[in-house]
Design brief:
Length: 288
């Protein structure tokens, strides 16, 4: 199967959609080499997912340099490795498999895919790019319907708790390219989006790395990543979304509630982590 040098990233999503429609109508078939590549990618993804990772302690990687500095500080400080539960591990698995399917569809639509999982380094920090498409670094993302909107609407720069923009900037600096982006799939609907950030929206990755290394060197706790938000209208305050999924929230907010720490209340929609309780919620309180 040929990979066209004339393909343009601007048509990538529509080209994939047309390819899928052509397959369904019988106007296109799948070359054996494309199926073999998909099978190899899926096999590799499952083997990697099922292989226990060595506990080498905290390493600054391209995939985490954009995370909030305080979160990185506590991750490095913690001697406890966070082990995901089984449902989370399954979620990771189908995320990896969806990425392989998406790369398969890119190849099938005759766009040029190269440098899959290539290792790159910036200022001693290593990372692995998902791939290049038509010569540009592309990070593959599987997203919920909520998160997908950031890629579809180009608003990721405004709310990027996982540091995806820094990750992309690091990959591009290492590769000397500047027109890459994110190919995202909405895992709830199957919709695709290609988001290519403007250069001005991409952070200076060397500055970020140096800032983090200085924090580690001088062992100074950075300011909190996010401020508490109102929990209802009666004066209670709670952790925002960016803190709720952080494994260090209990330690980080031990000064909450005048020094007694976070208070956890079990609502039907999930647990709320209150930093200030002025009005006692009429739901079950659970231990932190």
């Amino acid at each position: 199967m040929k990979n066209s040098t004339e393909k343009n990233l601007s048509t990538l999503v529509n080209d994939i959609y047309k390819t899928v429609s052509d397959l369904n109508s019988g106007d296109k078939s799948i070359p054996d080499e494309c199926l073999e590549s998909l099978a190899t990618g899926i096999k590799r993804a499952i083997e990697d997912w099922a292989t226990p990772k060595p506990d080498d302690g905290f390493l600054l990687r391209m995939s985490n340099i954009g995370r909030p500095a305080r979160q990185l500080y506590y991750t490095r400080k913690s001697s406890k490795r966070v082990t995901p539960d089984a449902p989370t591990l399954i979620k990771f698995l189908y995320g990896h498999l969806l990425e392989e399917v998406l790369i398969f569809l890119v190849k099938l639509s005759e766009h040029n895919v190269t440098d899959q999982q290539k290792e790159v380094t910036v200022n001693g920090v290593k990372g692995h790019i998902d791939c290049k498409i038509n010569g540009e670094v592309i990070d593959i993302k599987t997203a919920s319907g909520f998160a997908f909107k950031k890629f579809k609407n180009g608003t990721l720069r405004e709310d990027d708790p996982f540091g995806y923009m820094s990750q992309l900037a690091g990959y591009e600096q290492a590769e000397g390219t500047d027109k890459g982006g994110f190919l995202a799939i909405n895992k709830e609907s199957g919709e695709l989006a290609l988001y290519q950030p403007e250069d001005l929206d991409k952070p200076n990755v060397e500055n970020i790395i140096n800032k983090i290394l200085n924090i580690f060197k001088f062992n100074k706790i950075p300011d909190k990543c996010y401020s508490p938000i109102p929990a209802g209208t009666k004066g209670n305050m709670k952790l925002p979304r960016g803190c709720v999924y952080c494994p260090h929230k209990i330690e980080c907010h031990k000064d909450a509630n005048d020094g007694s720490g976070l208070r956890l209340f079990k609502y039907a929609k999930g647990i709320e982590y209150l930093t200030r309780v002025k009005y006692e919620p009429k739901v079950e309180e659970i231990a932190a």
